[in-house]
Specification:
The protein has 80 residues and is mostly helical. It has 3 helices and no strands.
Length: 80
C-alpha cells in the first residue's frame, strides 16, 4: 500500500508554498475532486462556492446526488 502524495496533492502543496513565498494575499483555488477530503480543503476560505452537483466521479463521491452534495459541501467552513 502506497502512502505517498497523489500528483494533485503534490501540485497543491507546491502551489501553496509558491503563494507563501511570493506573498500572495488572495488566491482563487479550485477543488480538485469533491471537496470534503480534497487537498485544497486545508485552507480557510473567505468565500466558498459549489457551482454544480451532478453525477460525475460517482466512484469517488457516491452515486446519489445527496452523497455528491455532501462531499462537495465539505468545503464549507463555520463562519464562511
Amino acid at each position: 500500500m502506497s502512502h505517498g502524495l497523489t500528483f494533485f496533492e503534490a501540485a497543491t502543496v507546491l502551489a501553496f508554498e509558491l503563494f507563501r513565498r511570493e506573498g500572495v494575499e488572495v488566491a482563487v483555488v479550485e477543488v480538485g475532486l469533491g471537496g470534503r477530503l480534497d487537498a485544497t480543503n486545508v485552507l480557510r476560505p473567505e468565500v466558498a462556492s459549489v457551482t454544480n452537483v451532478a453525477r460525475d466521479h460517482a466512484e469517488y463521491l457516491g452515486s446519489e446526488l445527496v452523497e455528491i452534495a455532501r462531499e462537495k459541501g465539505g468545503i464549507a467552513k463555520p463562519g464562511v
